[in-house]
Amino acid sequence: MTSSMPVPAARAGSAAPTRLPTQRDGSGGRPRVRRGRRANLWTTAVLGIVVAVLAYAPFAVYTSITDDLVTLFILVTMASMWNLLAGYAGLVSIGQQAYIGLGAYAVLQFSDWGVQPYVGVIVAAAACAVIAVPTSLLAFRLRGDYFAVGTWVIAEVYHLLVERDASLGGGSGRSLTTLSGIDASVREALTYWIALGVTVLTVAGCYLLLRSRLGLALTAIRDDETAARSVGVSVSLAKRLVYLVSAAGCGAAGGLLIVSSLNVQPDAIFSVQWSAYMIFIVIIGGLGYMEGPILGAIVFFALQQSLSSYGVWYLVLIGAIAMASVLWLPRGLWGAVAARTDVRLFPVGYVVHTPTLRQRVAGRIAPAPTPAIAPATAPDDAGEPGDASGPDADRSTA
Asked: What is the pTM of this model?
């Protein structure tokens, strides 16, 4: 008599069924979140050409044009620092003019001590970062609107302290005389190149910082500080580091102001108008975008050059443009561009990569081949089946 029954699964130690290895693409056929791509070769090449052309400008254009470009570079530097502070760390400050003034006076003081003023710009930036350490201990005790107003009060305190120092010229200010021995054309060219170098370092430094782990922490803090803290982000440390970087950048901008104008006056250099300029530039260009301060500075500089002859109406028009931008372009000019295109000069965020249909199909597990049916072997012991080549193999006994 012949009977047929299914063979049970192979016991431990027996041969396992044969399957093809899993075949998946890099994404596994599933959407995934990844760091935004780095600037491509063409973007890098274009930016390099722009920097090279700007570096050659003193040999090709008049001094009046290079002087205007120095002003534009200073605006880009200041706005980039404020955007880093408010757009990524969520720290809205209206007192960054404190470090602009301290940077200018630091160049003046270091010049009296024998430091070359152009070198003094870098030293002044470092000095402002050092001064920002104890300042942050006080400022970070405040939150939200209180932080914004508190930074303004701190700037006024530094203003009063400098104004009462007779060695720095008091309320009337002082001139930077150590550059007077340099030929005017050479001095203007050197000032231009120093300003260009500081701006390039500022933008490149922001890009590298925002692509680091600190940049990811800053984005989390900006979106939800409580949630960022709950997942282990060191919120206080991240904010303090960004505050120090912003202070150094604003200090360098203040140093550029004094080496370009060769004089400093406390009421002008510590004026809240510098914070107003930064805020306007970033709002027009796009808060939270690295490209925003650059585009906003160009727009603001063009408006400044074309509307300054209207006197008081110039300020009215600037205010009207700012209000219109907030109402109709809440994300700024570059935010509107980014929402409609995939153009990114400085990709620092995260993107969701959704695989195509072909990638999803390729990412599935390949089905196992149908195993061939092989005759079962005789049982080794009573009640124990022999090894079979597959789970569906049959065993026949007579």
From this structure: 0.78
